Amino acid sequence: MKRFAWMLLPLLLLCGSLTVLAQDEGQPKRAEPPQPDGGGEENPDLKKGDDKEAEKEVEPDKATLDKPAPGFTLKNANGKEVKLADFKGKVVVLEWINLDCPWCKAHYEQGDELAKQQKKLREDGGVWLTICSSGEGKQGNFDADTLKKRMEKVSLSADDYLLDADGAVGKKYEAKTTPHCYVIDKEGKLRYRGALDNLRERRKNDKLEAVNYVQQALDALKADKKLDTTETKPYG
User: Fold this and answer.
1) What's the rounded Cα separation, in Å, for the pair 224 and 166?
2) Following DSSP, what letter does each residue of 60-81 receive, concatenated?
3) CATH 3.40.30.10 correct for 65-222
4) Checking phi first, is residue 44 left (phi over 0); if not, alpha (psi -120 to 50) or beta?
């Protein structure tokens, strides 16, 4: 009898195991616990932050037509800092200048058309900035007193005369001659770059009609029209 009981014991154990398995299969499955950080849905706040970062414009390091003009901060003839960003919402003309350059002298000492043009832009709500990138000891670089006298002599009507003695801003705009001009629209985009006018060509051919490329660009922007000329070869 004992021997028979020992033979039945394995069968009883096997039946118990099968019963437990059947009960488990009949039970509803439990929901999985929430995933730790890194799983599940993205955090909406983080996503918004990423979008805001993507919307930020990268500060350009080179002047490119129809793109945001490179920003800068320079000191004017009175030592006050002037930022290009301060004039957003206004049309801005940048003119690289060297008052000892023969071409600049032609515009500033042999007539007053350029001074009138600068004044007109200001009256129209725009800004004209002259920039001198002459290094210390180079032509066009003056001490404060001399610069003041030279500016008064030519009746310079620009809103500011900015000093870029290390040439950092000039390099951003690839300004290599004087005068070399740039027109920036109200949105801060560069719309024209090159010569102020066709004076150099007219000196070779006096039958040519005078053309002021900067004024053409300003007139087109004022009328909200497409610019016919966006780039010319500067002289100086």
Assistant:
1) 36
2) PSS--TTSBPPP-EEEETTS-E
3) yes
4) alpha
C-beta neighbour count of 56 within 10 angstroms: 7
Per-residue pLDDT of the chain (236 residues; tens, 9 = 90+): 444 444 444 444 444 443 434 344 444 444 444 444 444 444 544 444 444 444 445 678 899 999 999 999 999 999 999 999 999 999 999 999 999 999 999 999 999 999 999 999 999 999 999 999 999 999 999 999 999 999 999 989 899 999 999 999 999 999 989 999 999 999 999 999 999 999 999 999 999 999 999 999 999 999 999 999 999 999 98
Q: Which residue type is seen at 132? A: C
Q: Is the pTM of this model over 0.70?
A: yes
**Parallel/antiparallel/unpaired status of strands 190-194 and 180-184:** antiparallel
